[in-house]
Amino acid sequence: MLMESDYCIPCILKMSAEIIRGVTKDEEQVHEFMGEILKMKDLRRDKSKITPSEIVRDIWLRMQKFCSVEDPLKESRAEQNRKALNIYPFVKELLHESPDPILQALKFAIAGNSIDAMLDAKRGIDRKIIGFLSSINPKAVEEFKERLKKARKIVYFSDNCGEIVFDRLLIETIRAEYNSEIMVITRTIPILNDATLEDAMSVGLGEVALVMENGIREPLPGTILSKVSPEVRAAVDEADLIISKGGANYETLTEEEGITGKTTYLFQAKCYPYCRAHNVPLGALIVYNN
Predict the structure, then answer these.
(1) pTM
(2) CATH code (residue 152)
(3) Tell me: the pLDDT tens digits for 110-123?
(4) CA 186 to the chain's CA centroid
């Protein structure tokens, strides 16, 4: 899914301004940095053949150099995980009481995608996440369940911190229902509030699945298979089912031809291009079997 400039550029610029203000209180520095960002050719309205993830990567690299800070959102990521872990027992109890634990866990895992630095770099999570449990396409859910029944090997591309706590709940529920081997893939290099291996292990994902870095040696908030490690590439090729979380993975992995027919994308419709592509309202929970 290539970038739709009218919608993606304002969000990217807003995100950049919020993060840089979290690093420096000097508004002159903020203006200087944003001025440099606005000179980037890929932000021009010329239908650039580049994904939003690659734009964010290039801005993040400039931000690191400008601020001399390798990971501007490290503390925010840890805080998002802590807040999500605080309600983990509460949500787990809801799943125990649910007549359809897979559906309920699926909704929480997708609703967790609302924790996104592209929307609010400081956003955390609390019990209000229950308000995001809107309706979901039942046919898409049933198709996903059929894929789960047949899948012996699953590769699960994670997305944001906080969200990964609910990924853990979904994985626990899948393992309780089906006999599947599950490998969770995280980012190797910190970018935005995307989960790294350290983040994933801190919320207990290593207790329910094999966790591996993607091997991409650049701050890319998405997944380009030509850049992943040979181990991850082999796992993708051998997988019966690939689960892709979040918008950045959706934008990049839908450009990959080799995984069509065995990939399910789970994300929230946080912007109008997603709504238009899937004919859903803003905020809807999307299960896209591709």
Answers:
(1) 0.89
(2) 3.40.50.10880
(3) 988 776 544 444 44
(4) 10
